Amino acid sequence: MKLNEIRDNPGSSKSRTRVGRGIGSGKGKQSGRGGKGQTARSGVRIKGFEGGQMPLHRRLPKRGFTNIHALDVNEVNIGRVQQAIDAGKLDANQTVTVDALVAAGVLARARDGVKILGKGELKAKVAFEVRGASKSAVEAIEKNGGSVKLLAQAEASA
Fold this sequence. Notes:
Elements: H1 56-59, E1 74-77, H2 78-86, H3 98-104, E2 114-117, E3 127-130, E4 132-133, H4 135-143, E5 147-150, H5 153-157
Parallel strand pairs: 1-2, 2-4, 3-5
């Protein structure tokens, strides 16, 4: 094979339709844009315009708000932590932190911290340093002799 012999597969690309080139082409006169008016022009087309009737997005009331102080926290079940320990990705003797969970591949990225939830079974004695933990998770961890240290707001954001 030589560089000058390289070709695309036949039929893989279509040639551009030339519009406005005579009635016989099938795309003459209005070039497939329908009739006259705003929709025939280039540029503006009013989205959500209902012919002068109040549009739906303006008829409905505004509701709720976005809390700018809300935290984006990862949630991890203790069963998932046990899986990582069994696979050898997490060391049960080390303190489990957000960075350790990211390094083990349990979490994709750190975000604003991690909250431990109680679904699943934890067999290892593990110490956690996390943003939050549910009651059932704390009970399951302490049942095995582990500990949970909750990080303060200022520490996690610093």
